[in-house]
Structure formats: structure tokens, C-alpha cells
Amino acid sequence: MEWHMALILMLGSLFLLMAIGTPVVFAFLSVNLLGAWLFLGEAAGLAQWARNTTASIGSFSLTPIPLFILMGEVLFHTGLAFKAIDSIERMISRVPGKLSIVSILGGTTFATLSGSSIANTAMMGGVMLPEMLRRGYHPTMAMGPIMAVGGIAMLIPPSALAVMLGSLAGISIERLLIGGILPGMLMALGFLAYVVVRSRLRPQDAPMSEDDGPRLTGWALWKPFVLNVVPLLGIFIAVVGSMLAGWASPTESAAIGVLASVIATIAYRALTLKALWKSLIETAKVSVVILFILAASTTFAQLLSFSGASAGFLGMIKDYNLSPFALVICMLLVLLVIGTVLDQISMMMIALPFFMPLALAAGVDTVWLGVMILIALEIGLLTPPFGLLLIVMQSVAPPSIRLPHIYRAAVPFLVIEVGVLALVLFIPWIAVGLPGLIG
């Protein structure tokens, strides 16, 4: 079979299955079975497919995924994350756009501890959105920051998706995790700047309220922050610092994070058997799904390679003689376009088998590229019509909030995210500077 026919068969079958509503994992599984039968030799091919699938998830480098998830679940189900957000709100006195600022600071804090974009948006939406709307906040100022900081969880470690990307793309997981810190912080600062400026220019969009309470000073102002936020930020510092110093691998730093989280919950007397059991169950559910997806994606890439589709497609691209920079721009444009209709995992599974061989052949820094891919995936979370965080927000918003309102709320923050992507594209040090410090 010619390579272009194999490519059309594989991708066409995949898109057809997803178009009729087949879950992503089972769509890839079905295409893998078809490919194994056709390209690996019928029954013998299916046996080889089973061996490849088992081997793809047997790597020790995937261990941080369940550990990072468990770390966030423990903090979520014991309620420490809610305490941290409440403390941040008390620390911020009567300032314009206070609740929007709390959403950004609290959401970023939870993002550094959970690594889950969906959990971040669902929690912040459930906690902050009703109160913001009650106080008369414009929907853009109420929903926009909550959705925007949800995506930051994809960049700032611990990030299970970054581990997944590093594993699929063959990028150093340690350097990829560290590389997402500065872009994630830049996004948070950009969101804050937008909220502050808009609150000053249009105070009616984020009205002050008597509920904001009196202005606190001294220890009364800082006590909740010191007691409930600083210790949790210490967990993030332990995870990232151990990797930066070269003292721990990603797996070891993830284990440190879990241990620190459990110790913190015990110290706060928040850990119960019920919360621990719930955390373990949710961790198992999410981890199984991610590992299933990793197995499907790896074998999909292998089948594309064995059928000749990957080599044929890459050869066609090389014939255009694109410069490495132009090649990277084309990759990012492809991700931004398909991000409007596909979820992040599907985007990775489809694009990486083609992108990474091209990047390696062109001599592109894979950590730089990996961080930009993460940002592009994050942008896809907020991109209409099928951005995942838009759907999550709709699920927690009051019935009076329609999907077009949610789309409009996301637009200013999408612009900021694209701006950060452009910065990383033209100033690679933002992505590779910190990873270069790893001992």
C-alpha cells in the first residue's frame, strides 16, 4: 500500500470514529487494531500489537503521572486548597477587581499543587463564580480569569500532561517540567495586569462591595497567608527545587511532593480515611485513562511508521526546504487550528508522530518546542467551539449564562496566551533558561 493511502486510511478512520462520537481512546484502539491487522500481518500482527502496547506503558519514566495526580487529589479532598484560596482573599483588601484577582492568584496557587486544568476550573468556578456574579461582576471578569488560570496547570509543575508529552515526544521530562514555569508565571502576570487595568478603566465591571470588609493591617493581614498558603507553596518549592538542584529525578520529586502533601494534611489535621480513600480512587481512575491513552498513542505512532506513512509524509515536508524557525511556526499553526475542534490528548496523539521526527531532523531544541506545544495545547482549552475549559465552565455556571457569554469571556485571556506563545517563540530563553540550570 502506498504511504499516502495508508495515511488516509489511518487518519480517515480515526476522524470518522471521533465524528460519530466514539471516545478518543476507543477510536485510537480501533484504528490500532485495523492497522496491526493490515500492516503487521493479521493474527501475528495483533500479537505484536499486544506486546508493543504492554511495553509502551512499562516505562519507569511514567511513574510521576499517578504521583502528581495523587498529590493534587489529597490537597483537594482534604480541603487545604480551599483554605489557601480563602486566605488569599482575606489578604487582598478593598481593591478594584478583588475577586478576579483572587481567582487568578488562588487558581495559580492551586495549579502549582494539582496539575489538573479541569479540577482547577471546576473548583474555582464552583467556589468563586456565584459570589462574583452576585456582586455584579461582568461575566468576562467573573468567568475569564477562572478559565484562564485553569490552563496554567498544564504548564506549571506538577503537570501530568507535561509528563505525558515528554514521554510521547522523547523530551526530557525533567527539563520540560521546569521549562513551563516562567511561561506559566508570565501568563498569570498578564492576566493580573489585564484585570487591574480593566478594573481601573471600567470599575462598573468589577464593582466594590461592602462585603469586601474592612482593611486589615499588620499580622491580621498576613496571618492567614502565612499559615495556610506559605506551607503549601513549600510543597511546590520542594518538588521544583529538588529537580533544579539535581537532587531528584521527576519520579523522585513527585514522590517528595506526595509525601509533603500527606504530611501537610496531617499537620493541619485535615487528613481522614475517607478523604485518603477518595484521593486514591480518583488517582487510580485518572491514571488508568492516561496510561490507556499513552498505550494507544504509542502503538498508533508505531503503525504509522511501519506502514510508511510517517516516512512518506516527512519526506514530502522536507521537499519544501523550510527553515527550522518556519517549520516550528507551521507546527504551532497546525496545533492552534486543530485545537478548535480536538481535545489536547487527541492533538498530541495525532501531531507528535509527525512533529518530533521533523524537529529532530531540523535540529530544533526539543525542550523549547515542547514548552510551546504545551502553550498551544493550553490555548486549545479556551478556543471555541470545543475548548474543554469552556465546557467545564458551562457545567458550573448558572443557567442564565449561555455558551456565547463564555466564549466572549475567554477572548481577552486567549489574546494574552497567544502573546506569551509569541514571546517564547522569539525569546527561547523563557522556556530553556531554567532547564539550563539543572545540575
Automatic annotation (TrEMBL):
<keyword id="KW-0813">Transport</keyword>
<dbReference type="GO" id="GO:0005886">
    <property type="term" value="C:plasma membrane"/>
</dbReference>
<comment type="similarity">
    <text>Belongs to the TRAP transporter large permease family.</text>
</comment>
<dbReference type="InterPro" id="IPR010656">
    <property type="entry name" value="DctM"/>
</dbReference>
<feature type="transmembrane region" description="Helical">
    <location>
        <begin position="146"/>
        <end position="171"/>
    </location>
</feature>
<feature type="domain" description="TRAP C4-dicarboxylate transport system permease DctM subunit">
    <location>
        <begin position="11"/>
        <end position="430"/>
    </location>
</feature>
<feature type="transmembrane region" description="Helical">
    <location>
        <begin position="177"/>
        <end position="197"/>
    </location>
</feature>
<feature type="transmembrane region" description="Helical">
    <location>
        <begin position="409"/>
        <end position="431"/>
    </location>
</feature>
<comment type="subunit">
    <text>The complex comprises the extracytoplasmic solute receptor protein and the two transmembrane proteins.</text>
</comment>
<protein>
    <recommendedName>
        <fullName>TRAP transporter large permease protein</fullName>
    </recommendedName>
</protein>
<feature type="transmembrane region" description="Helical">
    <location>
        <begin position="31"/>
        <end position="50"/>
    </location>
</feature>
<dbReference type="GO" id="GO:0022857">
    <property type="term" value="F:transmembrane transporter activity"/>
</dbReference>
<feature type="transmembrane region" description="Helical">
    <location>
        <begin position="102"/>
        <end position="125"/>
    </location>
</feature>
<dbReference type="InterPro" id="IPR004681">
    <property type="entry name" value="TRAP_DctM"/>
</dbReference>
<comment type="function">
    <text>Part of the tripartite ATP-independent periplasmic (TRAP) transport system.</text>
</comment>
<feature type="transmembrane region" description="Helical">
    <location>
        <begin position="254"/>
        <end position="271"/>
    </location>
</feature>
<keyword id="KW-0812">Transmembrane</keyword>
<dbReference type="Pfam" id="PF06808">
    <property type="entry name" value="DctM"/>
</dbReference>
<feature type="transmembrane region" description="Helical">
    <location>
        <begin position="62"/>
        <end position="82"/>
    </location>
</feature>
<feature type="transmembrane region" description="Helical">
    <location>
        <begin position="225"/>
        <end position="248"/>
    </location>
</feature>
<keyword id="KW-0997">Cell inner membrane</keyword>
<keyword id="KW-1133">Transmembrane helix</keyword>
<feature type="transmembrane region" description="Helical">
    <location>
        <begin position="381"/>
        <end position="397"/>
    </location>
</feature>
<feature type="transmembrane region" description="Helical">
    <location>
        <begin position="283"/>
        <end position="304"/>
    </location>
</feature>
<feature type="transmembrane region" description="Helical">
    <location>
        <begin position="354"/>
        <end position="375"/>
    </location>
</feature>
<keyword id="KW-0472">Membrane</keyword>
<keyword id="KW-1003">Cell membrane</keyword>
<feature type="transmembrane region" description="Helical">
    <location>
        <begin position="324"/>
        <end position="342"/>
    </location>
</feature>
